[in-house]
Amino acid sequence: MVIESWRLLKWGDVLCLLLLAALWGVLTYWSWAQPRATRVRIYQDGQVYAELDLMAAKTLHVAGPLGETVVEVAAGKARIAADPSPRQYCVRAGWLQQAGQSAICLPNRTSIELVGHQPRAYDSLSY
User: Fold this and answer.
1) pLDDT digits (tens, 9 = 90+) for 13-69
2) Do 71 and 82 meet the contact criterion of CB atoms below 8 Å apart?
3) What angle do CA 62, 81, 33 make, to 5 degrees?
4) Which residues, at least 6 apart from 47, have a Cβ–Cβ distance to it below 8 Å?
5) In contact, 58 and 47? CB cutoff 8 Å
6) pTM
7) How many CB atoms lie under 10 A from the CB of residue 85?
8) Which residues pair with 17 in a beta bridge?
């Protein structure tokens, strides 16, 4: 039954299906591609604590209300390596490398954000 329905397709139908599949692939890549980040901004209690180049290998200890948060920068990416927060969500975010990505440690009021050459297209996000 399925084989018989494929025989009903003409060469124009197959061409349209191939073009739509190619267009779908291009649009998917284009809509999900983000520019690479060049710098990391570290925030403590809502204020910019430091801004570092992502190509410089560095470990920074940021003091917060609960203790020290350790931010690690290496080879074009950044992460929160250690934090005294109870649930460790910001540590579990892992290595960040694309502009716009962030890791937030709310109990310790510390966060990192990766920024690139292009300005953000939005001011804030809400869920």
Assistant:
1) 889 999 999 999 998 888 777 778 899 999 999 999 999 999 999 999 999 999 999
2) no
3) 105
4) none
5) no
6) 0.70
7) 21
8) none
